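hey so u asked for the seq, here:
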Amino acid sequence: MLRRLRDVMAGVGTPQQRLDSTVQVIAHELGAEVCSIYVQRPGRVLELCATQGLNPQAVHRLFFQPGEGLVGHIAETRLPLTLAEAQKHPKFAYRPETGEEAFQSFAGVPIRRSDRVLGVLVVQHVSMRELDEEEVESLETLAMVLAEVLTTMSLPGGDPNRDRGPLVIHGIRIHDGVAIGNARLHQPRVVIGGVVAEDPAVEHELLQTALADMHESLDRVMESEALSAAGEHRDVLETYRLIARDTGWIGRIRDAIDSGLTAAAAVQKVRDDTRSRMAAVKDEYLRERLADFEDVALRLLRRLAAGEATPEPAAPDEPFILVARSMGPAELLDYAGAQLKGLVLEEASATAHVGIVARALDIPVVGRLAHLIEEVDPGDPLIVDGDHGQVLVRPGDDARAQFRESLTAREATRARYAALRDTPAVSRDGVRLSLQMNAGLLVDVTQLEAVGAEGIGLYRTEIPFLVRREYPDVDAQTELYRRILDSAGDRAVTFRTLDAGGDKRLHSFVHEVEENPALGWRALRIGLDQPAILRQQVRAMIQAAGERPVRIMVPMVATVDEFRAARAIVDLEIARAADRPGAMPSAISVGAMVEVPSALLAIEELAREADFLSVGSNDLLQFLFAADRGGERTANRYDPLSVLFLDAMRRIVEAGKAAGIDVSVCGEMAGRPLEALALAALGYRTLSMSAVSIGPVKEAILSANINQLSDFILYSMKKKTGSLRNHLKSYLSDRR
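ran it, structure tokens below
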């Protein structure tokens, strides 16, 4: 049947005639009264291009928008659908011009080619009949053949694979900025040469050879000396090696070959099935395992498509925009030395940890871009507008010219900020602030000198944990912390102890599924329940410091007793270090992060216990207002410049002054010029932020009169409710 279908579509006649013959063959072979082919046009509109059984007058006149009707639903979800009574489905959309009211059952599958949906294949019956699993598999196999042939046909109305004009995809901002470049796929598509097998035995042999080659390659890499210094990569490859030998997965590929597909097409089919299943799975751990299967399938597919292992393409010399479905922090670092200008992601939230690396590299990132992989081809011109959370695909000349002007203006602004690098952050009335930097990677620390940061106010120690498959031991942590301190020179570094849990799940640690992970077992709670973890971190920090001072900060302190318990663990390690030979730090300071409302309510007592306080404004804002900062509808619902939140921030800094300790802010609030001025007016003198924020914040401080601003804000807080944002903007604008 597959060979007959292939011969029909490759035979004589116009593309329309061959498509008409195709639906006749499928309807006859499957015993269906109706067979229809819908082709996706630019704008993702689905057009009826051929039918056997429906009104022929509807061909090229019937259209479905994405998600509209059963056909649009299949294209949107990329999943097959079979119904005994189609008209009872909530997505059913009756179109009288088709004459389909006589048909009860409906079955459809997406016509996919790699990551792109090209259309939908539908069969219908008069009787109420739901296709079984084997029949749905047959339809999916037929759809694979159709996908390969559709890419070579020029249908009336334009080529579904190539007629793709300008497009704007809206997402969410992960890191701001603007970038222009050509698209480069993080996982390049593999083009399959043939779909229908002439001899299944030959295909089985090709599969076996490719599997053996992949197994041997993984074994060879695992045994290499070069791998011994990269533990996380070794564990990743160990996972691949186990998955690559999974008999169930390989058995599914062999079954697909037996159905008539080539070895490469069979692997592609199993990969597509895996991706569809992954889309329906909510559990993060299971999604990660399914993603591993898909990645191994891609490796195998490259071998089958090329006949041998295909190396990753070399980094292009021209500027490029990296396009990916999702990406981890470590993966992005692989591109750091190339002409990487921006990153766009089909998935990922505003709090995705890849954003931490992106900020270090200072590249714009936009996430949650629906159908990104489907719409973008390698080499497509892209404009990443991180400021507004959108991506322009194949933009016109006018759009390119406009954004190039924006880039030129940004370069001029950066030059202005760079000129302020060695200028102290002192306001016009003599108030001095210490502007420090947030970091989580060694690449961040190298920017200290470039941006003029006075120190690292927050070093996120969990980032090295997140990118490794195994838990780093004391020696590994000591080496990392020593390199950070060495790179920082005489600048102070504040290490935050492990802030895992919530959305930061370690590969080396078992995290139970929690209904509210942000409020669950995370950060200091893990450290107190598993004190060995906290002790090892503190031990490594003390050893790394040598005779230098070390600052240790514990996150998510909910009660004063919790902080006392954490400090007792630090004291144990101080006593342990004192009993052993070797240098001791000249000073060890232990501080608490204020990001939980319960800590705010006991802030005076906490300030008396701690050596310093640091406000995590991101978490404090979301917990205070019970609003998920990663949620689309709640992320910007509550303003940090509201009177309520400013009053909370005022209480914290006044408690610190009364106790005689330093209080800093290390959340996003510190890195925004308007918010930073408000914090300075409330009495904060240390602000820690991303490297790229230091220039704009310093410029704002240099032009402000902090004491006058303090009088204005405190007076406004007594007289007003709600947000002071516009009120504050007007005040500053009048005094420029």
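The radius of gyration is 30 Å. The first strand starts at residue 34 and ends at 40.
lmk if thats what u needed
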